[in-house]
Specification:
With about 200 residues, the chain is an alpha+beta fold. Helix content is about 30%, strand content about 15%. Strands 1-2-4-3 form a 4-stranded antiparallel sheet, sandwiched between helices. Bound molecules: flavin mononucleotide. Flavin mononucleotide (FMN) binds next to strand 3.
Length: about 200
């Protein structure tokens, strides 16, 4: 697997295998498969177990709606994300039922997305989170009340295809090794009051 993470410490295979793919095959994702992925996300922790994630999705075979959602994507995402098997909008429910702001909402929705995408990877389905889209277009399309819901990211899901099927620059991106900061750069053990704790 070209994009598999090269880790310093032993990390679970699923985490090494996941990457933000762009080359999607024509193979569809069934309703059951998608429900498995969504339910996996629902088992994520969240503040007060409030579960502030909402998803609006469309399968590729619903061409009319799929194209409407794909049309909300920015120019750099459209050329490859239009081949995904499923596109979804991920909404953050910003407030609790009593109208107060849920300060953990974005944290919790991101965590649910990660859980879903790892479940998907276990099924050889790859997810790609997308911030590059028009919120205005999505808001109009879904007739959203943005006081309540923030359409924060979209997610493209699909089975993998070969990198060669992509045009540049996406082909190169599809095979460029993934990189991360070393653990020592972002995590510090708290030792004593005297020592400086963080970090550039
Ligand atoms: C909030 C968010 C927004 C993102 N937006 C885009 C995007 O618009 N287009 C894109 O190609 N990738 C997007 N990505 C994917 C990241 O670029 C990718 O996760 C990062 O480069 C690490 O690569 P990896 O997921 O393959 O490990 C986004 C990821 C996140 C979490």
């Amino acid at each position: 697997m070209i994009k598999e993470a090269k880790t310093k410490y032993p990390v679970h295979e699923l985490i090494k295998k996941r990457f933000s793919a762009r080359s999607f095959s024509g193979k569809g994702i069934s309703k059951d498969e998608l429900n498995t992925i969504l339910e996996a996300g629902s088992w994520t922790f969240s503040a007060m177990n409030y579960q502030p994630w909402r998803y609006v999705y469309v399968h590729k075979d619903d061409a009319g709606n799929f194209n409407k959602l794909a049309d909300c994507l920015n120019g750099g995402n459209k050329p490859w994300a239009k081949d995904a098997a499923v596109l979804m909008v991920c909404l953050v429910k910003k407030k609790y039922d009593d109208g107060s702001i849920n300060g953990a909402a974005y944290h919790d929705v991101g965590a649910a997305n990660a859980t879903m995408i790892l479940q998907a990877a276990s099924m050889n389905i790859y997810g790609h989170v997308l911030g590059g889209f028009s919120k205005t277009k999505v808001t109009e399309l879904l007739k959203l009340d943005t006081e309540e819901y923030d359409p924060f990211v979209m997610i493209a899901l699909g089975y993998l295809d070969l990198p060669e099927k992509l045009d540049e620059p996406y082909k190169t991106r599809e095979v460029t090794p993934r990189k991360r900061k070393p653990v020592e750069e972002f995590a510090t053990q708290l030792k004593s009051e005297k020592e400086e704790i963080l970090v550039g």
